Amino acid sequence: GGPRRLLLISNSTLHGGGYLGHCQQHIQSFLGQKVKRVLFIPYALHDRDAYARTAREKFESLGYGLDSIHESCDPVEAVRKSEAIFIGGGNTFRLLKALYDNSLIHEIRKRVLEDGIPYMGSSAGTNVATVSINTTNDMPIVSPPSLQALGLVPFNINPHYLDPDIKSTHMGETREERIRQYHEEPNTPPVLGLREGTMLLVEGDKATLQGVTGARLFLRGKKPTEHEPGTDFSFLLTDSNPLNP
Known about the structure:
Its EC number is 3.4.13.21. The chain is about 25% helix and about 20% strand. The protein is α/β, with parallel strands linked by helices. It has one domain (about 5-235): Rossmann fold, CATH 3.40.50.
């Protein structure tokens, strides 16, 4: 196996574009020529057939075959044979519960971290690539056995990160306040707030911010910092983290 290779995308659809349209060139350069087929995991949405059709149409247009894990009679075996994995967005709790229910946490970790196959996630699929789903924006519509996720990176991500709207009269908590509440708990890892249109490319021990917007980084006990595309986030991969499984 080679080093871990991850493409962690904030969102599947950017305003004004089609499914994965804003990041299709990133996907092609990430998967390259060697990958012929992608294993799609549609567990985050209820209608898995429709979701698989959408994803298949997109990946075929980019030159890749797509197999959806929900069509396989043995999901674990499907992961073992996969050349690349893509987990799509939807509800993060539903997704993580299905990964546990189908005994896929260990298998996906092994394929990505030991065998070095490419892993792509968007939105909820990005959330589950991290330490835990504690910083998802989704409602807990089901209860996974644990909030611990795949742990492919030793920090958390908040996809679809939203800045406060200064014109808004809404008095609820901002995304930043919610992340700060998370960091009030002991031993909580960094949280990378990925705005829509951004993604994190991880190759081995190197992590680079890509896309068109930017990201906001939250470290426990420190002021959040602002980062432009092109930022080197490799230090997030080496920080020792007590939560890293």
